[in-house]
Specification:
Blueprint lengths: L20 H10 L6 H13 L2 H10 L4 H9 L7 H14 L1 H5 L6 H4 L1 H4 L4 H4 L8 E5 L5 H6 L5 E5 L3 H14 L4 E4 L13 E6 L7 H10 L1 E9 L12 H4 L4 E6 L5 E8 L3
Parallel strand pairs: 1-2, 1-4, 2-3, 4-5
Antiparallel strand pairs: 5-7, 6-7
Length: 271
């Protein structure tokens, strides 16, 4: 699915040097989610053959995928024409546009529709944040974190990407925010004790493995607390997610900034 968050021509192929291990593993194992995996591998091979530093980084940052990298570069032509090499690079950058824009998080507020068109009151409608201890899972550039920080007692922003964590910390320092802490953590393996939070919120996170991710966010939420899924507004309809509804989440609908359907979800935790 094309997100239209970047113009790949504006990015260097070296942005892969800012990506984390789990991102590289995902891209290499799933060929950037392109349906034509052969074409994706061909273009990646051309780009890697022309960018030895990126090739080295992929193999050493993500050693479990080193054999995949070797196979890709072995089967791809070694080109010398700069225009053809750049064409391959742009193809690969476009296939990973969400990961690519995360290397320049300061662009996200204007480039990402789910942030640009979003109203923070859509989050506040879902639960009472006053004096609550809140976890934001996959906090990204801080859309939910900084909104909730206006009302909550403490916010813990859990983000697996180092580049985004540093961006969050810089923004916290610049704005003088005192009630937000930034930590590492994946949705299915959060580094927090059981029953730690009054609210566990996320957007664009739950869905790779519904059962394990929901079990984990439920584990760290207190009994009586809330699980919130608030994806933000989109330039295309965000359709009702049966996977969430079938797992006991209450859908909360609104017509978004772009005139498209948006479904949020909440579930009260009872242990």
């Amino acid at each position: 699915m094309k997100l239209n968050w970047i113009n790949p021509e504006d990015f260097s192929f070296n942005c892969f040097l800012l990506m984390d291990r789990f991102q590289l593993r995902y891209l290499l194992n799933y060929s950037g989610l392109r349906s034509d995996k052969t074409e994706w591998k061909r273009n990646m091979g051309i780009a890697l053959n022309a960018n030895s530093a990126v090739k080295w980084y992929l193999k050493n940052k993500c050693p479990e995928c080193a054999t995949i990298v070797d196979e890709i570069v072995k089967n791809a032509p070694v080109l010398t024409d700069a225009a053809e090499i750049r064409k391959a690079e742009i193809y690969i950058l476009a296939s990973a546009e969400d990961f690519v824009i995360y290397t320049k998080p300061y662009l996200m507020d204007t480039n990402c529709d789910f942030i640009r068109g979003w109203d923070k009151n859509r989050l506040f409608e879902m639960a009472d944040f006053s004096e609550k201890i809140v976890l934001d899972v996959g906090s990204g550039s801080g859309r939910l974190t900084f909104a909730a920080a206006e009302k909550a007692k403490w916010i813990y922003a859990s983000e697996p990407m180092d580049n985004l964590r540093e961006y969050l910390r810089e923004k916290i320092a610049t704005k003088g925010i005192k009630n937000v802490r930034v930590l590492d953590g994946m949705a299915d393996s959060l580094p927090y004790p059981d029953d730690s939070f009054d609210i566990v919120m996320s957007g664009h996170v739950v869905g790779d493995d519904y059962d394990s991710e929901i079990a984990e966010i439920t584990r760290v939420c207190k009994s009586g607390g809330w699980l919130l899924d608030c994806p933000g507004d989109s330039e295309s309809d965000i359709k009702l997610n049966a996977e969430m509804v079938n797992r006991g989440f209450e859908p909360m609908y609104y017509s978004g900034f772009y005139g498209k359907d948006v479904h949020r979800y909440r579930k009260q935790v009872l242990k």
